[in-house]
Here is the input.
Amino acid sequence: MIEVRFHGRGGQGAVTAARLLAVAAFKEGKYVQSFPMFGIERRGAPVMAFLRMDDKQIRIRSQVYEPDAIVVLDDKLIKAVNVCEGLKSGGMGVINTKRKPSEIGFKDIKMATVDATSIAVKHGLGSKAAPIVNTAILGAYARAAEEFGVGKIGIDSIVKAIMESVPSKPNENADVAKEAYEKSIFA
Amino acid sequence: MKNPFSHEVKIVGKITVGARITQPGNSMEYKTGSWRSYKPIIDKEKCKKCGICVTYCPDASIKRTEDIPVIDYDYCKGCGICAIECPSHAIIMKPEV
Amino acid sequence: MKQVIEGNQAVAIGAKLCRPKVIASYPITPSTHIPELISEFVANGELDAEFINVESEHSAISACLGAQATGVRTFTATGSQGLALMHEILYVAAGMRLPIVISVANRSLSAPLNIWGDNCDTMAERDSGWLQFHSERNQDALDLVIQAYKIAENKEVLLPAMVTIDAYSLTHTYEIVDVPSQEEVDAFLPGYKPLHACLDPENPITQGACAMPEDYMEFKYAQQKAMQTAEKVVDDVFEEFENKFGRKYRKIEPYRTDDAEIILLTMGSMTGTAREAVDKLRERGTKVGLAKITVFRPFPKKELITVTKGANLLAVIDRNISLGLGGATFADVSSAYINAADRPLILNTILGLGGRDPTVENFCEIVDRSKEVMKTGKVERPVEWINVRKEDVT
Here is the structure.
């Protein structure tokens, strides 16, 4: 079983990102479970969402304490929250930032970074102040998963999930996922 | 008096399901006049036939007629509202013996 | 068709497939998505029904009661304080024998204010005369709503029913649910034909009348008999559902109990996590199994005794507390065995109140404690709270 934890701020779409990735994995024949951090969401406050995927039925329902991968939608969260908490050794991290993985300073983590904010803004998703980066980060996830062999979900499945489930601007959202897939950085 | 909950279309047993009452108007069989301890009596001389007692009677036990109203003592519980409301003070409440 | 949906969606879709004619609802976390979705179904024409916005849960259930009494199928959703506010009318609906179906998102009761999961809310309504069905997964939520209508409306039963889903761990969790087609559900659950309670000017009746001491007890006895009859009807409906949809439901569902010395008794969404614990402990050679309560009212005494036959210890796990006693399930389970010749030791564990996460380790801890008790054969503390900071309460 692969467990992924998403970190974002209320309103950025971390919960939707986890759900879209679940739908994409479902399209690849996997069993999936995705849920938000249980409780109250406030715009701007740090939030988490979770994804489990497996080849067999998922029965466990406790929260995710030791994820295989983390996805961070806002690099400023790294100062506020220990995003690596409980991450399995050799786990994977995907971070939305203008910086390179080596500049983040995490150790023992397979890292990918992507400037999801710029990509999202370029395609008109959200505003500069409040860009919607959740679909872009999924493109980066697909690429990182491929590169590192952790929790692989194909970019095609992600694009399909976006086209089916995103109510507004599905084409633009699909485009940003594809562009982020191309522009992910690993070193 | 017939048990109001008994019913010809029974689903379970002798009582209706969910305490439905299936005979409309069965309260006619229940003569509540026996509850009365004070009996309203209309004074023919004082009554102006205004009908206020008919309106106020909570049990619809006072009927209008060509003459003065008539109280149905089968159902009048003797609450005394008619006596209080009568503008001509034509109704007196007399203890039942 | 298989879809990735959250528990609230599963309930809303399940209810829609049953074609209720009146839905009256008041939002409350974490069940708000249910009326939101159903109101969309009504607005976009997917569901031909009247959606009534009401000003409280007391009104919601009252509106459902009134509508059901005119002779149509009704639905509402609530949880926690909302269910508590319905309390008065729940008894009325049961006494009037109106087969209303509602869903309850199991959430703790205030105070302190807490919006997270436990099932104190439904347990507080166990004496109200409602059938109770508890879901382990989102699929159960959808399937049980459909089956609940069929059981509730059976002419030998005619009792209202509640279907529960745990706050967040089901309500807000997306997973794969096989959604049946409208045709399949129509074939299983035909339109509602009121047998006893309907508004018909040709045949006027009084509903909700007064019953004097010389009649009241007969009506309560009739409700109790209907509950007993429901035991059989539940089995029949579960079987028919399995034949049509291929998914098997049981009042008490055993898991690896065959040679089990210790059996965990669970309910709701914690069961999945407990199954993981059972598998883990089995790998280490511990003879442990699990029994899940799906139907809590009528309480499946016979099935429980059958499933636990041969076990040395039954560990009853409650995500609720009847203050001054112990877990609500524990009390019921104990009463089931009271006259049984052969019964296991019975332990009770309270966990997961107010959304505290039940983990695999919690269930392993319960088994460890059970093993200790089995060594001596004596139960010194029948009720134990775990994963709680006792040291903070002095």
